[in-house]
Design goal:
CATH topology of the largest domain: Rossmann fold
CATH architecture of the largest domain: 3-Layer(aba) Sandwich
Number of helices: 8
Oligomer: single chain
Number of strands: 10
Largest sheet: 5 strands, antiparallel
CATH class of the largest domain: Alpha Beta
Number of domains: 2
Mean pLDDT: 85
Shape: globular
Radius of gyration: 19 Å
Low-confidence stretches: 133-141
């Protein structure tokens, strides 16, 4: 009898955590971000914690200040490591921020590498959210997939000729690793995501940043497609939810729009797949 062992991922990547010491000289450091670089030189610098959570941890004023400083450091690290190996030492532009040691691992692609790094580097917010929701994988996969499927069906009912634009995988120059896009035509590209409730926001922030990176790389490095407009279509609950949860979603979308604006990308939000389908058709037509 032969035993089939699972195969190991083949994508090599390295990462370094981005830490902050909120109280100077206290020795207490928490991981707020990560810089991930693949063997193919693909790079993602991402925040691992939402501004709203920082405000809850350190108060509105200090929390907002740390969130703004984190944005500055993420941009600086991304620029520095865009053409340098992670083994080189980057000097954070602000006091109180520190870079962790270089770690290496394997994944299926750099997007999965980002998720692995978020868990491996013990991001405070990422790990505590996983504890609160013991079965995250099923929810994370089913909500975005249901959103994509419902948009596809609504688009296909109105424009059957657009059905072939969904779930297209193409190789990106420099890596040869196919990336699947939720919707891809000659002029328009979109990735889909969904957040069913506020308890999933933190992991959705990490996931959405990787999808924005995919869109950015498509526009800049794909050889067959050069879409004029690239955006993330994300489903969030209706505004009729309770005030604290509504505020959390508002801050989440603002952070996504900030990340998208750094790459000249767009973010579209809706609760209705029918509205999202009309939006997609209007973008392409």
């Amino acid at each position: 009898m032969s035993t089939n062992f699972p195969t190991l991922p083949e994508y090599e990547f390295s990462w370094r955590s981005l830490q902050v010491e909120p109280i100077p000289l206290s020795g207490e450091r928490i991981t707020l971000g990560a810089v991930i670089k693949g063997g193919d030189q693909a790079l993602i610098a991402a925040k691992l914690i939402q501004a709203e959570k920082l405000k809850k941890m350190y108060g509105d004023q200090l929390g907002a200040g740390i969130a703004d400083a984190l944005n500055i450091c993420i941009k600086s690290a991304e620029l520095f490591y865009s053409n340098k190996p992670l083994s080189m030492e980057w000097e954070p532009p602000l006091e109180g921020f520190y870079l962790g040691k270089v770690n290496s691992s394997l994944a299926d692609n750099i997007e999965e590498g980002l998720h692995r790094a978020a868990m491996y580097c013990s991001s405070f917010s990422f790990s505590t959210e996983a504890i609160k929701t013991p079965s995250p994988k099923k929810t994370e996969l089913s909500a975005p997939e249901s959103w994509r499927k419902n948009i596809y069906e609504a688009v296909a009912r109105q424009r059957a000729d657009f059905a072939g634009f969904f779930d297209r995988a193409i190789a990106i120059r420099g890596s040869g690793v196919p990336i699947t896009f939720g919707f891809l035509s000659d002029t328009y590209a979109a990735q889909f995501d969904a957040v069913p409730d506020s308890s999933r926001i933190q992991q959705a922030l990490v996931r959405a940043q990787s999808k924005l990176w995919q869109l950015d790389r498509l526009r800049d490095e794909a050889t067959l497609f050069k879409p004029e407009l690239c955006e993330l279509l994300i489903q969030i609950p209706s505004p009729s939810i309770s005030d604290p949860e509504g505020s959390a979603f508002k801050d989440f979308i603002e952070e996504l729009r900030y990340e998208a604006s750094r790459r000249a990308l767009d973010v579209y939000t809706s609760e209705s797949p029918v509205e999202a389908a009309h939006h997609v058709i209007a973008r392409v037509a």
